[in-house]
# Entry
Amino acid sequence: MPFSCTECDWGNCDIDRLILSLLGVNQLAFEFKSLRYLNMQNCNYEEQKNILKDGVFPDERSQCEEVFSESELFKVKQEMHTEYRPYEFSKCDEAFLNSSQSESPMLEKPYLCSHCGKAFSHDILLKSHEHTHTGGESHQCFECNKTFVYNNQLITHMRTHTGEKPYQCSQCGKAFSIKSNLTSHKKIHTGERSFQCTQCDKTFSSNGYLKIHMRLHTGEKPFKCSQCDKAFSQNGHLISHMTIHTGEKPYQCSLCDKKFSLNTHLVRHMKIHAGEKPHHCIHCKKAFLFNSELILHMKSHTGERPYQCQECNKTFLCDSRLKRHMRIHTGESPYECKQCDKAFIRNSELTRHMSIHTGKKPYQCSQCAKDFLSNGELKSHMIVHSGEKPYQCSQCDKSFARSSHLIRHMRLHTGEKTYPCSQCDKSFLTNGNLKKHLKIHTDKKEYSI
# Structure
């Protein structure tokens, strides 16, 4: 008799396949009696598709012939929700197994970890848990030397290097490296958003996305950095943050040898070589690699700056720029030079600083071969060659090469003075004018002495 999980709607994979994928393909062999496998073709673990067709998991190296009842397997699945949190199984949303049983049984936990005393209902979970103490990461990536506890984790990871995306959407042709991502993507076409937030009525296509969203309401940040005190609501954000400490850049461009800390950054960079800029501004001739860049750019035409600093009232186009600005007030300098003790607010500042040690200017103009310390400096320089002035004032006929110049110009029309003096009540249009004004106060102090 099959069992259903009451804790989640994690579907597509049956209990036995879930446990097998957790333990790794070639670690244990199982024989199952009277199990009916539903939707095997939809299982996230495509590489294990050939197993269990006859109710037996074949492994020529196996020395285990232990037999498990369905109720035992169900208990293991239930404990994954209540105890075994290092693994997330919330990415697919179909029914687990049909069952008339609506509530999980009370779990006995006779298997104790000799390292920490944690209890488990089955020795399978105990063995898997013990890897966290022994560091049993036997599966190593030959590209970046990362190690993994289980073989299926390595197989999934390898796709970040090979670029393999075997799961393709039949509606739009978009491909994914993980089947669960394809499952979530398909709901864009169907419009299905069946998971609703009880706090704000927002809906999501999967339970996993809902769980991540709920952390905005609860303030939960379960992913903590081992190097500093920072914590994050998503594991991906922690991984991105860790590269600040490690300096690791395992993803290399095959065309220009540039290295990146994240695969997403490499994918983004590769579009520069391809010359692909599909997102066009309707107000000017500018085009962008990503829609998010276009949305940000559009604000330069409207003058919209919705993110305001509570310390100095300065406004910004996007949240990330406000966060970066806040480091001025907090004193946080997360980008540290490994050659000396200096630290910087921005990564671009660290890159510029590193040229002192290396003597290199990594950004070169393709028109005149001039070298620059930062990509921003190169972009500013390229305007010299193109003569392009895409940012036009809506109040007059003036146009500008940079959005920052347009924003500064717009203040002439609005009368906005965003740079207040801390010594008196005066405010100024530009930071440069404020700096000039501050000399009046410093000169007065020197004169009074």
Summary: The mean pLDDT is 72.
